[in-house]
Every structure is written in structure tokens, then in C-alpha cells.
Design a protein that fits this description.
about 0% strand
């Protein structure tokens, strides 16, 4: 098991720099670049090539993505859309953006798998992971639901503590911006 910390006086989940996305994204993006360089997902590269995207264009798109992530801290007043536009991500071929998203998704999924395994005890998963298990098999229910049914499910679902804290912070930020 890896090192985990909890700030003094906090009841929040344990914090681990090895699992926190803000700390792991450089390694994740590096892994994406390695996987493209090693041609580990040939089917994905073939799909991208069918759209006429070259390996150089794929590399350029990945560079734009990395610039976007690195720009997140440099100008807090700039919106995400503005940063995406400024770094040139929006000008990249759609197939290249989809390929980067797919590859990054597989890498992050691997990180999540080991993070969940790392934080679970022999007695079973933590409560928030247990809550996640209730969504198994829910994809079809949501995908085939009529729009009003999906909205009703969202309204009836009791939000988690994390979601409540997120909404509270969002309300606070909006009131500061007014």
C-alpha cells in the first residue's frame, strides 16, 4: 500500500499524491505519448489514419493538449474554452482529439483501478466505492431513457457528499463573480 495522508481535523478521504489527478496527470500524459510512440493500440491508429490524420498531426494535437493542461494555472481568469482556443486544441483534427481522449481514458482507467484497489480494505470497498457499484448495469437504463426520465432520475437521486460540496463551492464562486 502507498502513503496516504489526512489533513489534521479533516474527515475527508485520505489524500495520496500518487492517486490525485492533479499530481498524476503528467505521468498519465507521458504514458499516452509512450503508448502512441510504441504503437500499442494499432486499431486506434488505423482509425485515425482512415480519417487522413498523420502521426505528426497526432503528435501536434498531443502537444496542444499538454499546453492546455499546463496553461490551467497560468491565467485563472481565462475560461477553459479560451485556453483550448489559445493553445490550438480546437484547430486539431477531430480524429486526433478523439484518439488522445481514448488513449488517455484507458490510462486513467488503469490509474483508477489501482487507486480503488489501493484504498479498499480486505473487508470490502469504501462507502463511496460501494455507492458507485449501484450504477453497474445502469448505462442501458440511462441511454434508453426518454429525456424527461433521465432528468427525473437525476432529481430523485440523493447527491453524494462530494456532489453537495461541489455545488456549494460553485454557488460560492458564482456569488463572488456577481
Amino acid at each position: 500500500m502507498s502513503l496516504s495522508l489526512r489533513p489534521k481535523g479533516s474527515n475527508d478521504p485520505m489524500y495520496n499524491p500518487g492517486r490525485d489527478l492533479a499530481y498524476t496527470y503528467p505521468k498519465a500524459v507521458e504514458e499516452v505519448a509512450k503508448r502512441f510512440n510504441d504503437h500499442r493500440w494499432q486499431a486506434l491508429e488505423d482509425l485515425v489514419a482512415k480519417d487522413g490524420v498523420t502521426f505528426d498531426q497526432l503528435c501536434d494535437a498531443l502537444d496542444c493538449y499538454i499546453c492546455f493542461l499546463n496553461a490551467a494555472h497560468s491565467s485563472p481568469s481565462e475560461s477553459m474554452g479560451d485556453v483550448l482556443k489559445r493553445v490550438g486544441w480546437l484547430d486539431q483534427p477531430e480524429a486526433a482529439k478523439i484518439a488522445i481522449g481514448a488513449m488517455l481514458g484507458t490510462v486513467v482507467t488503469g490509474q483508477l483501478f489501482y487507486a480503488i484497489r489501493d484504498t479498499s480494505s480486505p473487508d470490502g470497498p469504501r462507502a463511496d466505492i460501494q455507492e458507485l457499484l449501484q450504477y453497474q448495469g445502469a448505462a442501458k437504463r440511462y441511454l434508453y431513457a426518454r429525456p424527461w426520465q433521465a432528468k427525473l432520475r437525476l432529481l430523485l437521486h440523493k447527491p453524494s457528499q462530494w456532489w453537495q460540496r461541489y455545488l456549494q463551492r460553485r454557488r460560492e464562486r458564482r456569488s463572488l463573480n456577481k
